[in-house]
Amino acid sequence: MSVENDLNTAANLLHVWTQEATTPEPERLDVRIDVADLLAAVKTLHDAHWGYLSAITGLDLGAEAGELEVLYHFCEGAAVVTLRVRTPRTDPSVPSLYPIIPMVTVYERELIEMFGVEVTDTPDPSRLFLPDDWPEGVYPLRKDFDIADAAREA
Amino acid sequence: MQSKIDKFTIPIGPQHPALKEPGHFEFSVDGEIVTDASVRLGYVHRGIEKGTEGRNWVQSLYLLERICGICSHVHATAYCLGVEKLAGVEVPPRAQAIRVLVAELERVHSHMLWLGVAAHEAGFDTLFMYSWRDRETVMNLLEGITGNRVNYSANVLGGVKCDISAEQDEAIRQGVDFLEERTRHYLEVVTSDMMFLRRTRGVATTPKAQARELGLIGPTGRASGISHDVRVDAPYAAYDIYPVKLITATAGDLEARFIVRINELFESYRVIRQILDTLPEGELTVRMPRRIKEGETVSRVEAPRGELFYFIKSNGTDTPERIKVRTPTLPNMASVLVLAIGHQLADIPMILTGIDPCFSCNDRMVVVKDSGGDNRAMTWEALRQYGIEYYR
Amino acid sequence: MNTLTTIITLLIFPGGLCLLLLGLAYEWVDRKLVARLQNRVGPRWFQPLADTIKLLAKEEVVPENVQARLFTVLPVIALAGALTSALYVPLFGLKPAYSFEGDLIVAIYLLSLLTLCTGLAGANTYNRFSLIGATRTLTQLFSYEAPFLLALFGPAIVAGSWKISEIAGYAESHWLVLTQPVGFIVALIGLMGKLELPPFDAPEAETEIVAGALTEYSGRGLALFHLGKGVELVVGLTLVAAFYLGGVANPLAFFVKTLVILLGLAGLQALFTRLRIEQTVGLWWRYGALLVLVQFLALIVWEGWVA
User: Fold this and answer.
1) For a Cys-Cys bond, which of A34, B213, C17, C270 suits C37, CB 3.0-4.6 Å?
2) What mean pLDDT comes out for the span B362-390?
3) Do chains C and A touch (3 or more CB pairs under 8 A)?
């Protein structure tokens, strides 16, 4: 199957939930969906054996936008499909993919501690990378975190 | 002592002879059998992803290359390919070929290193010593080409910084011939040494279905029959001109992982020779803009340990907006915890090494623990000053 | 025997000091041979001695929550056991210092004292690695001890004596390695198990349990255990050479034969992968014990039929 075929298949699978679909590069398909539809969309891809979850990226869109974006990258051959969900910055929350893809827990732990996104129903929300005495409520990969400030306060 | 002991926990790490890098594992054992496992990483977390957001595109390259000492070149390659794609720059074919050449030499060096470490974990120090001796050959070749044994900095944005001269060409050919002969010997050892097979055959067996569920990637996954290899699936740099053969096995145990990695070495030798035979002439670099066009890209590269995933977002300035790195060890790490259960304690170092873990890759704030016991975060300037005064 | 000779025998030659130095020298030979076989440079000739002196000079850290007295006394008992057993074997090709009917059994059990002390030392501490190491040490003791014992009883049966000096005397005119090859191999491999050399180093497998039972030991205690190991190596090599390789009637024969065995041991160490503890036990009871037992029974029947 060629890359276009793979991407078409994915687009068809996901069109029910698609809010906005773009193809920024020939081998990529970005699909924006609602947080509530995330599990259903991932389940469809998973059941259709379309690729595998390659990574979860967190993005801080900044204080003005007031939103965090979570990107789920699925890869099949050369094709990459990215499911993009947005969640408010003040109370970010996404559902856990654990029931569908059990290995996702390490990615989710990273997302929790780096961005402070609450991942509901993830089996192990404990810290993976940050030190034990890292202050609560400080998320290093958010845009308003500055290492110099953190050092001055410590 | 307590009257009732529910579980006996063996801590492995952060410092332990089985670990070449810090990580913390806790294995609950019943006699010699492991019943539960958990992991804590981050002992070498250096905040590199955050660090790139405060540096320009060129500085970030050198920072990202230092994510890992063993597979530094693939990090630089993934980053360069991504940024060049964003900038819309076409890199000369000779540079792409040299990137692949260095990447394959690096794979040889990484797999040889792994072979030695895995043999040492099994208590087979003779194989460890011999494979590391032979590994020096490829280290010397890399030093000859790039000037460095690790962190080669062969890549620059828009090309490569080092060329292959006629003498280097000859040296690489000789080195590869020598290594190929030695590798054939090692393949024979790991598939026929009865004592060694007792420690590898049937240990940590992962059938294909389970491997898919655990999300195994790279040689670890390929040993279970998962046919993913970014070099084949989505050829990058010059892999479309120098295609590689997908190496898989079906057994899914430690022996299969040895066989897959060693067979990949033969494939690397073949590609290296092919590149030297048909190295295109031309420039090594093209001019790169200082500011990169706004946009997002995904860059995937096959590191020696599996698929390396980069997500790069540019906001049109001279610094990256966000760089996400997903290293191959992270998805494979989860499998260790699952596979360990039910195995003997003696197999744990082998199972852990079986995925070829790289903790530095995984962990990417500088926190210095001083003797007072309280932690401080240090700024780059403060750390630099501390370093200067320490060595004065 | 007057008092002065006794003191010299016990403390200087052939027991005591000379034996300790010989143990260190043999340890060096072993390490150097393995290193060369593994394409390494290996230690310099005085390295084991330097290590010992350094350890003896260092502070001995007694961890919390251990029986402190037991902790200090165990290494001493271990070394004393090894040194005492040496008095009954023909060291340096000389007659044993002491001898009585049945000293073979006493010597072998004194040698096991070292392993037993190592196991107790591990179980005495609260360190998890030590505890697992202790379990493994004792498990291993129970697996190789019986076959090793039977392998040394073979020569005793044909010699018709339980006295080491008499068996060695008999063996001088009979190369028992030719008539009892199974016994020789089992004795050799049993010695490797006794000394916890690879592939039988599961009790101190560094990639799993750091230093096994002796993880908490430092300074003097560790040095004494190491010295004990060295003595055990010499005594073990002497016993095997005296019983199976045509005796050790003079110093030259002693050194040549023991060093030849040591060369063999080094080769075996470099050749194999560490066995898991359950594989060690399986190997000994499934093959080692069975084979040597068959040979042992055959010997008894043969001797009884001939006599």
Assistant:
1) C270
2) 57
3) no
